[in-house]
Write a structure and sequence with these properties.
Strand content: 15-25%
Distance between the termini: 70 Å
Helix content: 40-55%
Number of domains: 1
Largest sheet: 8 strands, mixed
Order of helices and strands: HEEEHEHEHEHHHEEHHHH
Number of strands: 8
CATH architecture: 3-Layer(aba) Sandwich
CATH superfamily: Alpha/Beta hydrolase fold, catalytic domain
Strand order of the largest sheet: 1-2-4-3-5-6-7-8
Structural class: alpha/beta
CATH class: Alpha Beta
Length: 340
């Protein structure tokens, strides 16, 4: 009997240790604000011809204020639809002003905002990947009442973390279509993979505990892979993904997942040579990788801030943001089709 008690105690302690470790990993990944990369330039509406921005703000689920803009072509008031664009991790919505400008030029009113704990928005931390889904649902509530948006059809688009977000909001009643660039299927898979890249240590054994952590903090659906929430959707969904994506590898992609194969509402396009920024040209993706890599190397050395700043001044940020016209045309045709 004593042995059974000791064994049970050890098992409980082991589970408790793994639970604490999982919570610590979440805390490291999402326990602080994200203010973007200080050495990168972020374009605003003023950097694009005829692109206008009207500031907006709305309340999130934690009482925090979320801030962004409504973007549109100058002197245009008749829009095809409202497109809500959700950003990825590492910067706020200004990381995607080139894509925002593209959709605005093609007749869409675009709402883009910064997630909780990111750049212009309130919040002491990011809190977790599912927090962005809560933020999007707050945005959807906001657009129901704002005079500029309440009568427009609603479409969703997002990249990376933003793609994860829009896929998980596809079944919201007012949504008429979803476009996802480089969407991850499983958040714990993404988190453990990135932790291995940064630390060299494999922590796959933590995935069940990370899922439980997300479920307890954000609700039961937060712990489920994206494909489980998306596979029965009746909404049109377009998933675009690069086969050479090193951030969200194809093994953890929503695009091409076998569980979605029977749903005719979901289209996947896999690009053999594309990486994580699937909407960008191959040259732009290569240039981004080189620039971020060089900045990362410089930042490791003491007293390197001046070197980083000097190197950043040599970068061509227009080249970084060069869009792949074929990919963007595919996205545009999909959205136009959602409205027919």
């Amino acid at each position: 009997m004593l042995y059974i008690w000791i064994l049970a105690s050890l098992l409980i302690l082991a589970v408790l240790f793994l639970w604490i470790l999982a919570f610590s990993v979440e805390k490291v990944a999402f326990g602080a604000r994200c203010e973007g990369n200080e050495y990168l330039s972020y374009f605003t509406a003023a950097d694009f011809e005829n692109l206008k921005a009207e500031p907006i703000e709305f309340q999130g689920n934690r009482g925090q204020t979320l801030r962004g803009n409504l973007y549109f072509e100058a002197d245009k008031s008749d829009f095809k639809a409202l497109l809500i664009f959700c950003h990825g991790m590492g910067g706020g919505h200004l990381s995607y002003t080139t894509e925002i400008d593209f959709f605005a030029k093609h007749g869409y009113l675009v709402l883009a905002y910064d997630n909780t704990g990111t750049m212009a928005s309130d919040g002491k931390a990011l809190f977790g990947m599912p927090q962005a889904v809560s933020d999007l649902k707050s945005a959807l509530q906001f657009v129901k009442t704002d005079a500029r948006t309440k009568n427009l059809p609603v479409l969703l688009a997002g990249h990376s973390w933003g793609a994860y977000t829009v896929c998980r909001a596809a079944n919201e009643p007012q949504v008429q279509g979803v476009l996802a660039f480089s969407a991850p299927n499983d958040a714990p898979e993404l988190l453990t993979a990135q932790a291995q890249v940064q630390t060299g240590k494999k922590i796959d054994f933590l995935k069940p505990f990370l899922r439980l952590c997300e479920s307890l903090r954000f609700g039961a659906s937060a712990g489920k892979p994206t494909v489980k929430l998306l596979r029965d959707t009746q909404k049109p969904v377009l998933l675009l993904h690069g086969k050479k994506d090193g951030v969200v590898p194809i093994s953890n992609a929503v695009a091409g997942n076998a569980a979605l194969a029977q749903n005719k509402n979901i289209q996947s396009v896999l690009y053999p040579e594309k990486q994580h920024n699937v909407y960008a040209t191959l040259a732009a993706e290569q240039y981004i990788a080189e620039a971020i890599g060089k900045l990362g190397v410089l930042a490791k050395f003491k007293e390197s801030a001046d070197e980083c700043a000097a190197y950043a001044k040599t970068l061509d940020f227009r080249k970084m943001c060069e869009e792949d016209s074929e990919v963007m045309q595919t996205a545009l045709e999909f959205f136009n089709g959602c409205l027919q």
